[in-house]
Design brief:
The complex is a heterodimer of chains A (112) and B (493).
Chain A: H1 2-20, H2 24-46, H3 68-99
Chain B: H1 3-20, H2 26-50, E1 55-58, E2 69-72, H3 74-97, H4 104-123, H5 127-145, H6 151-182, H7 187-193, H8 199-217, H9 226-232, H10 235-261, H11 266-288, H12 293-314, H13 317-348, H14 364-378, H15 384-398, H16 402-426, H17 444-459, H18 466-481, H19 483-491
Antiparallel strand pairs in B: 1-2
Helix pairs in contact in B: 1-2, 1-4, 2-3, 2-4, 3-4, 3-10, 3-13, 3-17, 3-18, 4-5, 4-10, 5-6, 5-10, 6-8, 6-9, 7-19, 8-10, 9-10, 9-12, 10-12, 10-13, 11-12, 11-16, 12-13, 12-15, 12-16, 13-14, 13-15, 13-17, 13-18, 14-16, 14-17, 15-16
Classes of the chains: A mainly alpha (112), B mainly alpha (493).
Chain lengths: 112, 493
């Protein structure tokens, strides 16, 4: 149970970072932390105490296995996060070229 | 088996465009137009042939709890028709509009990916697959919002990308919780197992999904990204985003999850009603004060999504009929209004209404079609917006909730006021003497895109006639209302 709470705390750290940080790069990093928390949550859902990996080998007896599906899902989700991070960093570089700053309080040409 | 092609064709087109365009846009235009015409033909055919049946496509020969399935029923084919119809007109409009930017062939590749993502979200019956297609659509949307390459566009795109990926992470969390409770990812199977579990689970997951997909649908309080992103994008993309993107990723998924999977929980219907009413009224008030024409239209998108959500939240047959009908109509007239705004921006070089004026004589087609679209969105007869708003109005009174009917009427009145302002400042009123005398030319394809949608504004109001309604809208409403039907049809029992 403690490990789930810690994992949720990691998610909250990510959300806190996105909401309070002013630096574009720190916001991107906080998004990454949030993503890791959710990925970790998936792995925890699949985990069973004392279970082996879900690969059938010839001479090995079939025992309890962890659920392999969330691990496959997380691979997909990691690739998606890689793409989104690359996209955001590219946008941040372009924003820096235009505004000469990473501070979001100074990047405000669009208004309400 | 039509549905896989609706995903394969745009993906293949995007691939071919990047492969052989060679830095010029001639082949890109040919491929994308061919792809979208075939998509529209396929989706109309599948909608007409589906009726009230349900067809399942199971990928790569596996059977249902193990495979990714595509579900073809009245609701999904109806949404596919809307997406591909607006995509075709948007592409017609793009051909000459997008030449003002650099590297137009990249635009067509991204556009095809956008369509592939939306078609995938609509067609799929597997919740993780839905997430993946949603990300494909969102990626191309972020890139297309920033396509112009100006500082404001990067700013809007960054804002949209951060908010969008926070909501995607929340959705992924919700999917994880659902999977850990039900051990399946097929939506029909989840729907079958959920009633046997604790109802608190539905509430928690529902709240997470409401925040996640509510941001995609831009319901207030999750709307902050929409006015920036939709007004910064190139006009045909604004039409795609406002017309179909927020509906296929937001409203459609909300309907599918909350009605077909969660079984129409009463609490969430109440939440829909409240946030729908708030979006409708606050959206239109924010729109009233705008002078930037595309921002004004973007705020109206929030307001009109509010109408759809109210119709859905009433959860009566008539309410859902009104909601679904308004969804269709809003796609048509909002896309048309964004094309008009695109023409105005291209010809006058500004989006500020105060610097326009007296354009009715110079741009007769634009002026005429935007008048039709304004009357439609404001809900005046005999245009389609009137009928769908009337149905929502009557449904609210029938369901014993006259407050929402009153708010819908008030919202409609304020919408009319705001569009009269737009007409007055852009097309009538005093001519702006400082403005450049040589207006850029509006191409024939752009005119036809606008005229065809203006004609549809009138023609789709025929869908209220009972004979036509039974063929088009009633099967869609039946799919939404018949909660256990989705489970039975998909799982084949």
């Amino acid at each position: 149970m403690v490990i789930y709470i810690l994992c949720f705390a990691l998610l909250l750290v990510g959300i806190y970072g996105i909401l309070t940080k002013r630096d574009l790069i720190k916001i991107i990093l906080s998004l990454g932390i949030m993503g890791y928390a959710v990925n970790l949550m998936f792995i925890l859902f699949a985990y069973k105490r004392g279970a082996g990996y879900a690969i059938l080998v010839k001479d090995k007896a079939v025992t309890a296995m962890v659920d392999p599906l969330p691990q496959a899902l997380i691979l997909t989700s990691i690739v998606i996060e890689l793409g989104i991070t690359a996209m955001l960093v590219a946008l941040a570089i372009r924003l820096f070229e235009k505004y000469k700053t990473f501070d979001i309080t100074k990047i405000r040409r669009l208004s309400g | 088996m039509i549905l896989p092609f609706l995903i394969i064709i745009p993906l293949l087109a995007a691939f071919l465009i990047t492969l052989i365009s060679g830095g010029r846009d001639s082949w890109a235009i040919v491929f994308s137009i061919l792809a979208v015409i075939s998509l529209l033909a396929l989706s109309v055919f599948s909608f007409l042939s589906t009726g009230s049946q349900t067809f399942i496509y199971e990928m790569s020969g596996w059977k249902i709890p193990l495979t990714i399935c595509l579900v073809q029923d009245a609701l999904s084919t109806f949404m596919l028709v809307i997406v591909n119809l607006i995509a075709l007109t948007s592409l017609m409009f793009s051909v000459s509009y997008i030449r003002q930017y650099s590297a137009p062939w990249k635009y067509y590749a991204l556009f095809m990916l956008l369509i592939a993502g939306m078609n995938g979200v609509i067609a799929t019956g597997d919740i993780f697959n839905l997430f993946v297609f949603m990300e494909i659509a969102l990626f191309s949307a972020y890139a297309l919002v920033a396509f112009g390459g100006k500082a404001e566009e990067y700013e809007a795109s960054f804002k949209y990308a951060v908010m969008g990926s926070v909501s995607s992470t929340l959705i992924l969390l919700g999917i994880g919780i659902l999977y850990s409770a039900t051990s399946t990812l097929t939506m029909a199977k989840i729907a079958e197992i959920l009633p046997t579990l604790d109802v608190k689970l539905t509430y928690w997951v529902g709240a997470i999904f409401l925040a996640g997909f509510g941001l995609k649908a831009a319901i207030i309080p999750f709307h902050a990204w929409l006015p920036d992103a939709h007004s910064s994008a190139p006009a045909p993309i604004s039409a795609m985003l406002s017309g179909v993107f927020i509906k296929s990723l937001g409203v459609y998924v909300l309907i599918r999850l909350f009605f077909n999977v969660f079984g129409g929980v009463a609490v969430f219907n109440e939440v829909f009603l409240v946030i729908g009413a708030i979006s409708m009224i606050i959206g239109v008030f924010l729109a009233l004060g705008q002078w930037d024409i595309k921002r004004l239209l973007a705020y109206h998108s929030i307001s009109q999504i509010g109408y759809i959500i109210i119709g859905i939240g009433l959860a009566t047959n008539l309410g859902i009929l009104g909601g679904v009908f308004h969804l269709f109509n809003h796609a048509i007239f909002k896309a048309l209004l964004f094309y008009n705004a695109g023409v105005l921006e291209m010809t006058t070089g500004t989006r500020d209404l105060r610097q326009m004026g007296g354009l009715a004589k110079k741009l007769p087609t634009t002026s005429f079609t935007s008048m039709i679209a304004s009357l439609s969105i404001a809900g005046l007869p005999p245009f389609n917006g009137f009928f769908s708003k009337l149905i929502i109005f009557i449904a609210a009174i029938q369901a014993g909730r006259p407050v929402y009917a009153f708010l819908a009427g008030l919202g409609s009145l304020l919408t009319l006021a705001s569009f009269m302002k737009m007409q007055r400042y852009a097309f009538y009123g005093k001519e702006n003497k400082d403005a450049d005398k040589t207006l850029a030319k509006v191409s024939t394809a752009m005119k036809w895109a606008m005229i065809s949608l203006a004609v549809l504004c009138l023609l789709t109001s025929l869908m209220v006639i009972p004979g036509i309604r039974e063929l088009t809208l009633d099967p869609v409403v039946a799919v939404i209302m018949n909660k256990t039907g989705y489970i039975a049809e998909v799982l084949g029992r």
